[in-house]
Amino acid sequence: MTRVVEVAPERYPAWRERFEERNAGLTEPQRVVGVETFEHDLLGLLLVRRGGYAIGLAKGGTLVEHKVGSAYVQSRTKKGGWSQQRYARRRGKQADELVTRVRDHAARLLTHPDPQARARRLDGMCLGGDRQLLAEVLEDPRLTPLRSLPTRELYDLPDPRLTVLRTALERARAVRVTIEDPG
């Protein structure tokens, strides 16, 4: 059985040393079968869910700029008939408004004002939240340079808030170690 462990990049050498010490001399030791790093100095973060959004610009492990907001997008209803169709239209309109707001903030925070310049010299992107909403946000022509950047995806994050944005930054920078357990 394999599992993935996320370790902060500054802690990884000591973590690896302790891992090797604990498994030395065991008849069936755990083995590291993969190490994935995501080392980018200037990192853009874009998290979107129906409950809100968080956009950040990080240098190293520090957020240098961010914008966090909430949005109400009505959930689905089980009732049928006219009301269901009316609520579906309302949900669609609310989601469109959220996407428009996120596109504007992302363009302001993550891209360079000069269209000829590369995306504010970002080295990488971290995307999280709702895949469909993120795809709609990234369709904006102003965000085209972001699509070609190396990306780490974290779709298991909760509704974006500032604490969630900070957690996403930690996880985006983390070294992902794949461990094979014995048996």
UniProtKB/TrEMBL annotation:
InterPro entries to which the protein is assigned, alphabetical: eFR1_2_sf, VLRF1
SUPFAM superfamilies in the cross-refs: Translational machinery components
Domain called Actinobacteria/chloroflexi VLRF1 release factor: residue spans: 43-178
NCBIfam families reported for this sequence: acVLRF1_NCBI
Protein name in UniProt: Actinobacteria/chloroflexi VLRF1 release factor domain-containing protein
Species, as recorded: Marihabitans asiaticum
